[in-house]
């Protein structure tokens, strides 16, 4: 066995994980701060939303290119570039005098963070054999779920005690330290690769994924019938259709769709996308219910979600070890069963539901989630030959972004339609009973309608998860496809100089 396989580069992986953690934490850190930014910089809601929409779009455009970048450049070069862009963006955002500077800083952050996660996943895949991969990917699962989950809680506390600029000034020193440590410790070598980025591939990918993400994100706010939504979604579908055909005809595609010929990888992608679509019901609807229906403060709503995030973080490495021992199917089926049951229980909320009951149910739901995402994705990636890892990780991250956008738009639409339906139903019922529709009565009707709409949306989410549960029953433990490829560690050595 290759020496680098005997001694995985734990120090370097730790640096990459810290970088990925702050990048993923940054994804949800700003949500609570948007009202403060609106007031301080004098912008409206439509404008300030670009801080999250723009971040998502840059990620959607950049992530598909990471397969090419990882094959072309060294781990050291990519890490320093990504964390460098993220750091500069963080500093720009912290001192931004006007909104345009803040948005520019946010875009720089996104361009850096988009590279970090696929890079980290690729390093983990080439540094550990399949028999030990579940454990280390479990720690990665901790980052994927724990960092975004604590973002709102941490942001609420920071906003309450400082101001929104502290969200950037507190992260900047950590990202600077990551850059310095990476610069000093990261030394890797790579054989010269004759690989060029095809410009047409980049344009088609950017237009396709960017348009889809923008279209689905806008649909949740302005409706599916909006001409801008319809146009961007159609443009995205057409561009992606051409992109896929074009990539399949290339000898060295920017993003290789031929990886879908590996059945367990394809299955893992479908399951992950379905779960991502449904999971946004919890992250989106629980805070809405907590604040609008049972009158919790934003800080209390954030605290409510924290125990579930902690349980998910603790269980991810444990489930990684269980994956190494038992494989992914058992974990996925059990986890998806728990997700289905708990999501169905969320569809029976009432005005009497307490904060404690919500927290316990959310903990159970996140416990189930910890058994699903990384075990499913790891099982799929394990089937790919080593030279397909960059394409597999890039495809996973890209399609999960798209699935999240579709899921959010779909669930917001269901919530809106069902709330309007119940509002009209309750108004008609009140009129039949001869009640006077005072402002207080209309407010009560609005809350009852929203509650019923939230319950219906959770019910639809439970049905969506059932499809993932059925598919998980067909998972099989896989062995790696070789195809005569040298192990990447022959070309890429990410050990610190002290280990060489």
Automatic annotation (TrEMBL):
Keyword Methyltransferase applies: no
Membrane topology according to the record: Multi-pass membrane protein
Compartment(s) where it occurs, according to its Swiss-Prot or TrEMBL record: Cell membrane
Transmembrane segments: 12-30, 50-70, 77-104, 110-130, 137-159, 165-185, 197-217, 229-246, 267-290, 296-314, 326-346, 358-376, 397-417, 457-475
Protein keywords: Cell membrane, Membrane, Transmembrane, Transmembrane helix, Transport
A Pfam family this chain is assigned to: MFS_1
Entry-linked InterPro entries: EmrB-like (IPR004638), MFS (IPR011701), MFS_dom (IPR020846), MFS_trans_sf (IPR036259)
Subcellular location, principal: membrane
Cross-referenced SUPFAM superfamilies: MFS general substrate transporter
Positions of the Major facilitator superfamily (MFS) profile domain: 12-480
UniProt cross-references to NCBIfam families, sorted A to Z: efflux_EmrB (TIGR00711)
Family of the protein in this entry: Belongs to the major facilitator superfamily. EmrB family.
Record protein name field: DHA2 family efflux MFS transporter permease subunit
Source organism (scientific name): Pallidibacillus thermolactis
